[in-house]
Design goal:
Helices cover about 50% and strands about 20% of the residues. The protein is of the alpha+beta class.
Length: about 550
């Protein structure tokens, strides 16, 4: 509870005072008034105080002047008022300079004005402001709380907040997706990528949003002719989203901050209600999708009936998308999975894409209509890509990979699409690609080997005859198989292969002769190279499938 320096200067008792420096700091808040005659121990002065002093000893005592200069430079004070004509004939130039450079208003008080009159007038104004703010705060609280009681949605709450503050209001979820907005016509527009766009220049919101998240409270800053404010919406210790406000600087009042903070509590209640509803829907979706993928149903008509209750159409071709954390052995908490589920739900709903979602301990399955377009042109593919890019921005240390199964029009085959999607995601490390989204159809020869494995062929039997001579010892075997793998990947280029392996060309040539001798294959033969290539792929795939079985 405070008043602005400029409001204090407008009081009758202050009309004969003179502002010597620090005009840029007239919007600083005065929270209290302190009278000090001798500048000694300044550590007891609190932030936001108006310091009133006679300036005793400042002329002849250099140490005291330096002490006061440092106090001004610390920005703890809201302003400083010094009497002229009592102990000082002139205010020291060093103080004026420090105040101007620091943006701290320095006020000259004539000798006939009483200390007590200044203190009384300013404190009365502060107390009056406090009472006004309390009344305003209570009224705003009642008005906004009524919106919760009346079951108003986020858009209606936003409209009311914009009306109360006469400001541009944008509400964002925790991933900075726009949830609602109320913008003053012809003043600004809002872009998710940048922030507010004014006639003069764009006003980026991300830095202030980060401050609001770190501090866990409303923060604001001056941006040209505007004041930008950001307030986190916090419920049960978690940030659910943000309120962003933009208002002309000349019209901004700290009471606006009170209204925004109260609105934050109202949004929190509304989002908790929405979360409870969403959690219930996700649970119902999860149970149904789990039954489908585990084929735990007796009649397909039951699946269709349950899907219809969830307003989901099973009549079209369906595709399964599998989301998995790239580092499978990372200890992921429940909250992390919930955030990923929340992100997916937000993106798919915003794009109006029907879906069923099932969250597991370390992954998420999504069932969605395949549509007629090629998968990379389909809306669900773009949604998956948006999910990946958004997640990598907010959680770069926990990247996700995405696998996509083939589309099927029979409910009994949806589990096959899920398995394919799972394979696609988990085979990404073998594909030597930087992509994080892979379709089962893009697995190439690995896809063929998987089909052979599903048909009953033992991958171990496929590769062991040819590669077993390279596996006599763990170290030597691994070296030889890796050497062969790199050599084939570089199309038998000795120089490139040796460079990647960090060995001499002669060493590589020796290893290649060892491989030919042990396997009985010629690396000059196209057929032999193909057999070796497929054997290595089967070896890698077999190891990965063993890992998958262990994890599951």
């Amino acid at each position: 509870m405070a008043i602005l320096v400029k409001d204090a200067l407008s009081l009758d008792i202050m009309k004969e005072t003179k502002l010597l420096a620090g005009e840029n700091g007239l919007d600083r808040l005065i929270q209290w008034v302190t009278i000090v005659e001798i500048i000694e121990d300044t550590s007891r002065l609190s932030e936001g105080e108006l310091l009133v002093t006679t300036g005793f000893g400042l002329t002849e005592n250099k140490e005291r002047r330096i002490r006061l200069v440092k106090l001004i430079q610390s920005h703890r004070l809201s302003a400083i008022a010094i009497y002229k004509g009592v102990y000082l004939t002139e205010i020291p130039a060093s103080l004026i300079e420090a105040a101007e450079n620091s943006g701290i208003p320095l006020i000259e008080i004539p000798p006939h004005v009483n200390f007590s009159d200044i203190t009384k007038a300013v404190l009365e104004q502060i107390v009056s402001s406090q009472l006004h703010q309390l009344k305003y705060s209570s009224a705003i609280h009642q008005r906004l709380t009524h919106l919760n009681v009346s079951n108003k949605n986020v858009t209606q709450i936003t409209d009311e907040l914009a009306h109360l503050t006469s400001a541009n209001i944008v509400v964002l979820d925790v991933f900075l997706h726009q949830t609602a907005a109320h913008l003053i016509k012809d003043e600004v527009t809002y872009s998710p990528a940048i922030g507010f766009l004014t006639d003069h220049e764009p006003i980026e919101t991300t830095p202030l949003l980060k401050q609001a998240e770190e501090k866990g409270r409303l923060v604001y800053d001056t941006c040209g002719a505007f004041v930008l404010a950001a307030c986190p919406v916090i419920a049960m210790g978690d940030i659910f989203g943000f309120i962003v406000s933009l208002k002309k600087k000349v019209a901004w009042h700290h009471l606006d901050a009170i209204a925004i903070e109260h609105a934050g509590a109202v949004y929190a209640i509304e989002w908790l209600k929405q979360k409870a509803i969403q959690d219930t829907e996700n649970q119902m979706q999860g149970h149904l999708l789990d039954d489908i993928l585990q084929q735990q149903y007796t009649e397909e008509s039951y699946v269709v009936e349950q899907a219809t209750k969830l307003q989901y159409d099973m009549s079209d071709e369906q595709v399964v998308i599998y989301f998995q954390f790239q580092h499978q052995h990372t200890q992921l908490d429940h909250q992390m999975m919930q955030r990923l589920s929340q992100l997916l739900t937000s993106i798919f709903e915003r794009r109006h894409i029907p879906f069923l979602l099932k969250t597991r301990l370390d992954s998420i399955f999504v069932l969605t209509p395949a549509g007629k377009k090629a998968f990379q042109e389909a809306e669900w593919y773009r949604a998956a890509e948006e999910c990946r890019s958004t997640w990598s921005y907010f959680f770069p240390v926990h990247p996700i990979v995405i696998g996509i199964g083939r589309a099927y029009d029979q409910i009994g085959l949806f589990s096959k699409s899920a398995k394919e999607a799972q394979y696609a995601a988990r085979l990404l490390p073998l594909l030597k690609t930087d992509e994080c989204i892979i379709h089962y159809q893009k697995l190439g020869l690995y896809g063929m080997l998987l089909e052979m494995n599903e048909a009953g062929m033992n991958l171990h039997d496929f590769y062991v005859e040819l590669l077993s001579p390279l596996l006599y010892t763990k170290k030597q075997g691994a070296d030889l198989i890796h050497t062969l793998e790199v050599y084939l990947a570089h199309n038998e280029n000795i120089q490139k292969s040796a460079g990647e392996l960090f060995i001499h060309r002669h060493t590589l040539s020796y290893r290649l002769k060892q491989i030919e001798t042990r396997t009985g294959c010629s690396l000059k033969s196209t057929d032999d190279r193909m057999k070796l290539q497929l054997s290595i792929m089967a070896y890698r795939l077999s190891g990965l499938l063993d890992q998958m079985r262990t994890i599951s």
